């Protein structure tokens, strides 16, 4: 009996008993749990930040492509004729420059806030110009669409005069109209304007189109280019405004660093924090939007160095 009791006592002594946690250890454990929760939250928010950056880059590229298309179509429409100078290609230049500057700013993230601000200003100006270009090309396309080109003629000869007023064009007499080489002219429109047209205006139908191959080129190609330029300018206006809104939201999300650096610490320097289990966390102070700071804990070394306890006592066993 005595031997069995001694064995039981020995067995009881072999089982270590976990002592109560010290206040400092409890505080460290709570801080570690809070740090883990904060790190998971920061990880989620950083992924959201990266997705916003990706969307901003994609939208800047789309805006650039639309601006280049608007520029190409408007430039072609501008040079179809020598006297009717419409075709709004200039908004495409401004919107393209604004999208490029904004794209550089978005790619640079923290260091590109000035680029993003400049890009938003240029895109705003480009949006206003695209709205003006939409009105100009839309009105010009409407005037061309109203013209009856079956009553117009085309001349390939040298510069000369054409007498308008014959064949019932108008009943107040005759008048001469100057025509140039490769000109599509419409006497019925010139007669309706009483042979007195000071110049091209969006309020008056053009009666002459200089340096064209035929009147059909004006009716088909020129009109199609003007309508296409109108649509592209509307699209450029829409994507420019959308890009400004998205970049503004992205810029406000990247103004402040992720974690505020402690006093005397360079924000560009990563900080290594050890927990009681010998694990380490590397914290940086940039590259992410403003989120709650990660709480730090008093330095606890994995090997137990630097920890001073009274006497030679070993710390009680505890689990994290």
Automatic annotation (TrEMBL):
Keywords: Membrane, Transmembrane, Transmembrane helix. It comes from Branchiostoma floridae (Florida lancelet). It is found in: Membrane. The gene is LOC118428263. Belongs to the TMEM255 family. Signal peptide: none annotated. PANTHER family: TRANSMEMBRANE PROTEIN 255B-LIKE. Residues 311-320 have a biased composition (Basic and acidic residues). The chain crosses the membrane at residues 56-75, 87-107, 114-136, 226-250. GO terms for cellular component: membrane. Residues 1-36, 294-320 are annotated as: Disordered. It is a multi-pass membrane protein. Residues 1-13 have a biased composition (Basic residues). It comes from the Eukaryota. This is Transmembrane protein 255B-like. Pfam families: FAM70. The keyword Transcription regulation does not apply. Residues 24-34 have a biased composition (Low complexity).
